[in-house]
Amino acid sequence: MSQEDALDLFRQSLRQLDPAVSDQQLQLFLRYRQELIEWNERFNLTSITDPVDILFKHFLDSASILAVYDRPQARALDIGAGAGFPGFPLKILRPQWKVVLLEATGKKVTFLRHMIGMLELQNIEAVQGRAEELAHQRVYRASFDLVTARAVASLPVLLEYAAPFCRVGGQIILPKKGDLTEELAQGKLAARQLGAVLRADQAITLPELEDGRRLFVWEQVKKCPETFPRSGSAMTKKPLGGL
Q1: What is the pLDDT of residue 92?
Q2: Virtual torsion, Cα 192, 195, 196, 197, nearest 10 deg
């Protein structure tokens, strides 16, 4: 696919999610992509480096969350934001949202803060820290309408990271793909302990993303118990919902 064809398809795909996407927003994505490629030559920010793949496998994949969660206002948390996915694409498309990008690695936080300034984004911040620690701080706990984590971890682990940050009535949206039969069963059991309930399991069918990607939507129906999250090592060694 040529760069021009890819950009046209990307634009059309975004407009499936939001018919009001502007040329200015598309330019923000292109500036973001250019900086990501340049910074990635010095820092290991992403393994996806092809310009076309970045448009679809990073930007459009992140934006797909709008298919299941599209509120005019939201306070959103991206756990393990890395190079800014899905937080930045969501912020570009929903500038009125308040977004927190949580990332533990210093060089990635430096990049995130650089991009916030370059793209002149408001009401967004990059916070350096570990989710299992910040979730026990009053300023962050149970204070987000939307919590997401686009990370390589099992559903029980991702839910334990996310649920403590989510307010009652808020949603946790976790993108995943592959054979998830056992993992989903464990996730449902873990969710019970964390005060969350699965509300939707939606396949992503956007162009270039038709490879078994799914969005799991959980609702925080009651406050997460104060004992969670545990340490990262405890979550990994003894995940909730073990069968």
Answers
A1: 98
A2: 50
Q: Which residue has the tokens 């118990």?
A: 225
Rounded distance, CA 11 to CA 39, Å?
Answer: 24
Whether the full predicted model's pTM is greater than 0.90, yes or no, is yes
Burial of residue 7 (CB within 10 Å: 0-12, 13-18, 19+) is middle
Q: Are β-strands 124-128 and 213-220 bridged in parallel, bridged antiparallel, or unpaired?
A: unpaired
- Enter the tokens of residue 126: 């990059």
d(CA 127, CA 114): 13
pLDDT given for residue 51 in this prediction: 96
| Closest C-alpha among 179, 184, 181 to residue 158 | 184
Buried b (16+ CB within 10 A) or exposed e, 42-61: eeebbebeeebebbbbbbbb
Residue with tokens 């934006």: 63
Contact 127, 101 (CB under 8 A): yes
Question: What would the two tokens of residue 28 be?
Answer: 């923000």
